[in-house]
Design brief:
212 residues, Chemotaxis protein chec, 8 strands, 27% strand
Length: 212
């Protein structure tokens, strides 16, 4: 089987299972890294892994007007594109409390994040996203490297417009991974979106044996 592909829709169940395993291993790597950073025991639920059309991403997030924290890293190396880590504000505040060792009620719902808290969220998003890319590299042999992360606190639609602006260079679909983890009574749900550019779908498919 050969040809030009620009989406995950060409994958069969076996290849999707491999992508799901990447999500599982990436989640495990990410939580291990987070636990080491916090020096705390972190529990993780089995991640949910789906293939979505880019247009469906805002539906996952509730609506385009929902305020979220987004950490985006460009993917460089054998394949290119971007990986986006999104948290709604309540999850981001719970994560900040976890990072800072604060009580869950220590931050008011309408409180803005301090510079230190934004920096902590950015570094955490960087660690988690890099863990997923490491899992992708380990399972496929593809060499990928994350760029310096950018963080934004805005409406979901505004944050998603960044990769959407380059949509002509991106594929039709994204790999969606929902990761849920907790420390004590603090529970955090975050969403990862892997968006390869069109040429990189072929690189990934060849690495998985879908095309040659």
């Amino acid at each position: 089987m050969s040809g030009n592909f620009n989406s995950f829709s060409n994958f069969n169940d076996m290849h999707l299972d491999i992508l799901k395993e990447i999500g599982n291993i990436g989640s495990g790597n990410a939580i291990t890294a987070l636990a080491k950073m916090l020096n705390k025991k972190i529990d993780m639920e089995v991640p949910k892994v789906k293939i979505l059309k880019f247009s469906e991403v805002t539906e996952i997030l509730g609506c385009a007007e929902n305020p979220v924290v987004g950490v985006m890293l460009a993917i460089e190396g054998d394949m290119t594109g971007c990986i986006l880590f999104l948290l709604d504000l309540s999850a981001a505040r719970a994560l900040v409390n976890m990072l800072m060792g604060m009580d869950n009620k220590a931050m008011a719902d309408n409180a803005e994040f301090s510079e230190i808290e934004v920096s902590a969220l950015k570094e955490t998003g960087n660690i988690l996203a890099s863990s997923y890319l490491s899992a992708l590299s380990e399972l496929t042999g593809i060499k990928v490297y994350p760029s310096v992360p950018d963080i934004s606190i805005d409406m979901a639609g505004a944050i998603l417009s960044v990769p959407a602006i380059e949509f002509g260079k991106l594929g039709e679909t994204v790999l969606y991974i929902e990761t849920e983890f907790s420390e004590g009574c603090t529970r955090v749900v975050g969403d990862f979106f892997l968006v390869p550019d069109i040429e990189s779908y072929g690189v990934l498919m060849r690495a998985l044996g879908v095309i040659w």
